[in-house]
Each structure stands twice: as C-alpha cells, then as structure tokens.
Design goal:
The chain has one domain. The longest helix is centred in the C-terminal third of the chain and has 31 residues. The chain is built from eight helices and eight strands. The protein is an alpha/beta fold. Strands 2-4-1-8-3-7-5-6 form an eight-stranded mixed beta sheet, with helices on both faces.
C-alpha cells in the first residue's frame, strides 16, 4: 500500500496545472481492518478521475461498503461500530505531493492510515465548489444513492457543522467518547466538521484533531472506519490586500469565468510586450537576411569568351 500512496503523489506531481481548472481536494477512506463490508477487489484502490462530492458519496457507498452503514436495510450485519466523516478545510490535491506541508501532522496521519490499514481507498481529485457545504453535498449524495432509504437517525455532528440546531451535536471530544462507549445496536455516523468544536481552549490543527479522534477510537476498542474529505477555503485573499490588486480566480465547472478589464497599466504593459515580440521577430529577419547576402560569393573578374 506504500506503493499506492507513492502513485497518488506521483500522479499529482505530473498532473497538468491550469489557472481555469476547478479547485480540487483529496479524499481518503480507510478502516484499520476489513470487517467484511467490501470485497477484496476494492482494497488499495486509487481513483484518478476527477469526481464531484456526490460521485464520491456514491463510490464510498458502493465500493467502500458504507451502504451497510448509512442506508436502511433489514437483517443488516453490524461490521463497524462507528463511521466518521471527517471534513477538512485546507488540504488541496496539489498539497499531497509537496515536501513542505501546510499541516504536516495531517499529511503524516493520512499517509500512515492509508498505508497501514487493511482497507483503504484514495480519491486524489474531488472537484469542490463554494456553492454548497461539503457535509451537505456528501449527505445528500448518500441519500440519493441509498435504494432502501437513508438512515439519518444515527447521525451526529460536531457543533461547527452547518446543520439544523435541532440535531444532535457534539461540543467536545468527551461527548464523542460517551457516544462511542455506548456502542448501540446500529452503526453511529459522526460528521466531524472543520475546526472541530466551537469552544476549544486553544486552536488545534486538523492533523491534531484527527490524531486525537483516532486515538480515542483505538482506546475505546470500537471497530471504525473514517472518510476524510477536504473543502479548501480562503484560496484567494481579499484583492484589496494584495499589493497589485490583481489575482487569478480558480473557477468551477458550475461557474463561468468572469472577463476582467485591462486598466491603463495593463494596456501599457501589454503594448510594450507586443512591441518587444514584434521587434525581436524583425531583428531576427534582418540578421538572417544580412547573413544570406553575405553568403553570396561572386567572382572578382570574368574570363573572356573563347573564340570559335
């Protein structure tokens, strides 16, 4: 599985970069042990296609075996006690292949979990949009692809999730610990949104929160599976804060790229650039012509014609 992780990083290095390409982020699904909710053929799988969050939800249900966890089924065998949907907000697809990570703890945690688990899947390119929250997109994707109905009565959220206030929410890691200790008859799905909890003593990175959550699950002895997905935000700074007041906006497939106007400074620079290119081309033509003329060799004198 270490080779599979290396392949993920290599593909991200070789991927073409385009300013108009949509923002993409990786997603990883793993379980320390394969508890029978997916076939052996689904192990160590890396999907290199660019997919939407709803397509990710469909793949997680069908190939990752989560249909047995979140979909309503009769006589369902309980193979997992807790399923965690961990939603990040900073990791992008291009960050996987970088030597210097924004959150080294998170990168190391994902790499270790992906390579050491008996069951793991990777989705390096999940196309993101600012239109919908990632948790809503994934949960609606689960609901659309559950043929027997979506079992949402065992779903709980951290208090940073953008969901109804009436739903069960966790305000600290102790609340999650109490839920895991109960281990009810059905698998509990915990949606862990970015930032963790509102009332933290000190701000923790995503890597620290994920590591703390995994440690909690291991100590409890619960059988668990985790889906990590990221919806990067803050990719563009406020244009007024930038020195030149210019930036390139990354657009999604659902939005049309806006056509920016070229101001006076832009017109001057573009004119100088065009003039430079024309001047270089004319200079090359002139030099080539002079060299061709210098290459013409004519005799200094001509012999008289022979008399017949």
């Amino acid at each position: 599985m270490a080779a599979a992780w290396a392949a993920v990083a290599a593909m991200l290095v070789l991927a073409p970069v385009s300013g108009a390409a949509p923002v993409s982020a990786p997603a990883f699904l793993w379980a320390p042990k394969n508890y029978g909710f997916s076939s052996n053929e689904a192990k160590e799988v890396v999907h290199y296609q660019t997919i939407s969050p709803k397509s990710l939800a469909k793949s997680v249900l069908e190939e990752g075996g989560w249909s047995n966890l979140v979909c309503s089924k009769e006589d369902r065998q309980k193979n997992v006690d807790v399923a965690v949907l961990f939603l990040g907000s900073k990791l992008q697809s291009s960050d996987i292949s970088k030597d210097k990570q924004v959150d080294p703890t998170l990168a190391d945690m994902l790499k270790h979990s992906f390579t050491s688990s008996e069951f793991s899947m990777a989705f390096p390119y999940v196309s993101m949009s600012d239109d919908d929250k990632l948790e809503k997109s994934l949960l609606s994707g689960f609901a659309e692809n559950c043929n027997n109905g979506f079992r949402d009565n065992h779903i709980t959220y951290t208090d940073t999730c953008a969901v109804s206030e009436d739903l069960k929410k966790h305000h600290s890691m102790n609340s999650i610990h109490e839920l895991v200790k109960k281990q009810s008859g059905q698998t509990d799905l915990i949606v862990f949104c970015g930032g963790g909890f509102k009332d933290l003593d000190h701000v923790k990175s995503e890597g620290e929160l994920l590591s703390e959550l995994v440690t909690l699950l291991k100590k409890s002895g619960a059988k668990y599976t985790i889906l990590y997905a990221s919806q990067p935000y803050g990719l563009l700074e406020n244009p007024s804060n930038l020195p030149l007041g210019r930036y390139l906006a990354e657009k999604t497939n659902t939005t049309k790229a806006s056509l920016g106007k070229c101001d006076g400074e832009c017109m001057v620079k573009s004119t100088l650039l065009e003039g430079s290119f024309v001047g270089i081309v004319l200079l090359i033509i002139l030099i080539s012509g002079l060299k061709c003329m210098m290459g013409i060799d004519t005799p200094s004198k001509f012999e008289a014609p022979l008399e017949s």
